[in-house]
Design goal:
Blueprint: E1 5-6, H1 8-20, H2 26-44, E2 51-55, H3 59-73, E3 78-83, H4 91-103, E4 107-109, H5 117-124, E5 129-133, H6 147-157, E6 161-164, E7 186-190, E8 193-194, H7 203-206, E9 208-212, H8 218-225
Parallel strand pairs: 1-8, 2-3, 2-5, 3-4, 5-6, 6-7, 7-9
Helix pairs in contact: 2-3, 3-4
Length: about 240
């Protein structure tokens, strides 16, 4: 029997149902995801090296902001790069972006055009861990500038990388890169494995995979666990 894994559509559907049918606010799911990933990184980062977190424009970036707060609370030196603007984030990510913005310095990167030389230097000079919170399971096309350049810079940095939910640039359903993709030492994925993780081709990008509970109802998750892979989404 294959391990329990979710497709891209199932991930989106489960999140929606957890919020709409089971009443778990999206911001609570995000808090649980980010805190769980931060707790994992605290275990991996036993010598308490600094952490650079790269936050994208969607909910994956929101998870990164939650991580930043909990890591900082634990005494870790944290820097955050946001590719975009806090005001243009999704509602749940915006909540956490605003909290961080009021709590610590935030580097804002213009996501239009090529990667700025200063940002290249920040990535290249990272002294500890890098957290990839750029893009999640919803990505369906190859990364373009500046994100493809960010990924290349991270991969060239030689620093250990923790990917949030899925390495940015990987296809959730196939486990193969859509173009440039993060090569993570560890991946903190939420609820369960993603369908593409079962492919042997995914291993060089995933590293070691850790499943993080985000507080979705066991009854809901078990419904997906028990249905055949590829079953149509519930409307």
């Amino acid at each position: 029997m294959s391990p329990f894994a979710l497709s891209r559509d199932e991930v989106r559907e489960l999140d929606r149902r957890a919020i709409q049918e089971y009443g778990v606010p999206g911001v609570v799911l995000m808090e649980n995801a980010g805190r769980g990933a931060a707790e994992l990184l605290l275990r991996l980062n036993a010598d308490r090296q600094p952490v650079l977190i790269l936050c994208g424009p969607g909910n994956n970036g929101g998870d990164g902001f939650v991580m930043a707060r909990h890591l900082q609370n634990a005494g870790i030196e944290v820097d955050v790069l946001l590719f975009g603007s806090v005001d243009r984030l999704s509602p749940d990510a915006k909540v956490n972006g605003q909290i961080w913005q009021k709590s610590a310095a935030l580097w804002k990167v213009d996501p239009a055009g090529r990667l700025d030389a200063d940002i290249r230097r920040i990535i290249a000079s990272a002294q500890g861990w890098i957290v990839d919170a750029l893009f999640g399971t919803g990505l369906t096309r190859a990364l373009t500038a500046p994100y493809d350049e960010v990924v290349a810079a991270v991969n060239a940095s030689g620093r250990p990388v923790l990917a949030v939910d899925i390495p940015s640039g990987m296809d959730c359903d196939t486990g193969e890169p859509l173009g440039q993709a993060i090569k993570a030492a560890h991946t903190a994925t939420f609820v369960t494995l993603k369908k593409g993780f079962l492919s042997p081709k995914a291993k060089p990008w995933l590293g070691e995979v850790h499943v993080i509970d985000i507080g979705a109802s066991k009854k809901l998750v078990d419904e997906y666990r028990g249905r055949p892979s590829g079953s149509p989404a519930k409307q």
